């Protein structure tokens, strides 16, 4: 029974860790400028960080031309934005109409980041209940969260993969930009993996606890201190 408790605690910890990782992805640029899902280093030494609810153009030289007075310009926090249009204006990256429309639509799917974060935290709270009912609900919630996180993970890699490919493969010598995946997308990947194992571990711990509890109810002690098993009425011998 002690081993079951340890396994349950491991699953609970994995749920908490996945919630924290999803929170990091959620608060990416423009909430926290340094955290990004995709980072683009521009030729003029500035950079663009794309996040869940928008983007930031970082280390932009002010109108005075003073190199020491740099600042970040960020969009407002909203669902959906147009990263392809920005890159076309900034470094003349060539996007076709299909790629532009695809990236605009896929940015709206990133609203699942905070939703998955909230569900993972709910699963963690349910797992803290440590009862059979709480463990079962926690495993079901974790499985649902994993499915949604997997969807948004695939979407993010497709979306930012299209953007990254166009930026790095451009033939424009004047562009000189380089795109790379940011920490936000890797925390999302790690959260997806942890949620998968957490849902399985919590479910197995729940089943094990239920089996032990059922065995404890069936087994009783006789007068001599030995363990006996209750027989069902159809298994009992008839006395004459």
TrEMBL record:
UniProt keyword terms in alphabetical order: Membrane, Transmembrane, Transmembrane helix
Lineage: Eukaryota, Fungi, Dikarya, Ascomycota, Pezizomycotina
PANTHER family: PALI-DOMAIN-CONTAINING PROTEIN, PROTEIN DCV1-RELATED
The keyword Membrane appears for this protein: yes
This protein's record includes keyword Lyase: no
GO cellular component, one term: growing cell tip
Pfam families given in the database record: SUR7
Transmembrane regions: 12-32, 111-137, 144-163, 183-207
Name of this chain's protein: SUR7/PalI family-domain-containing protein
């Amino acid at each position: 029974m002690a081993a079951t408790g340890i396994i349950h605690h491991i699953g609970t910890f994995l749920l908490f860790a996945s919630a924290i990782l999803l929170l990091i992805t959620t608060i990416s640029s423009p909430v926290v400028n340094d955290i990004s899902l995709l980072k683009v280093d521009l030729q003029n030494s500035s950079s663009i960080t794309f996040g869940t609810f928008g983007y930031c153009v970082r280390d932009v030289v002010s109108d005075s031309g003073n190199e020491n007075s740099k600042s970040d310009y960020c969009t407002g926090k909203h669902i959906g934005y147009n990263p392809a249009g920005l890159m076309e204006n900034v470094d003349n990256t060539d996007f076709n109409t299909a790629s532009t429309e695809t990236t605009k639509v896929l940015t709206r799917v990133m609203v699942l980041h905070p939703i998955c974060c909230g569900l993972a935290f709910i699963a963690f709270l349910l797992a803290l209940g440590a009862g059979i009912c709480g463990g079962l609900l926690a495993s079901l919630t974790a499985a649902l969260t994993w499915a949604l996180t997997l969807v948004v993970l695939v979407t993010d890699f497709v979306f930012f993969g299209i953007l990254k490919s166009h930026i790095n493969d451009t033939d424009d010598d004047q562009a000189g930009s380089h795109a790379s995946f940011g920490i936000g997308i890797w925390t999302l990947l790690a959260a997806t993996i942890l949620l998968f194992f957490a849902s399985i571990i919590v479910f197995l711990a729940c089943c094990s606890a239920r089996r032990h509890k059922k065995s404890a109810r069936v087994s009783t002690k006789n007068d001599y201190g030995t363990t006996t098993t209750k027989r069902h009425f159809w298994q009992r011998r008839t006395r004459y």
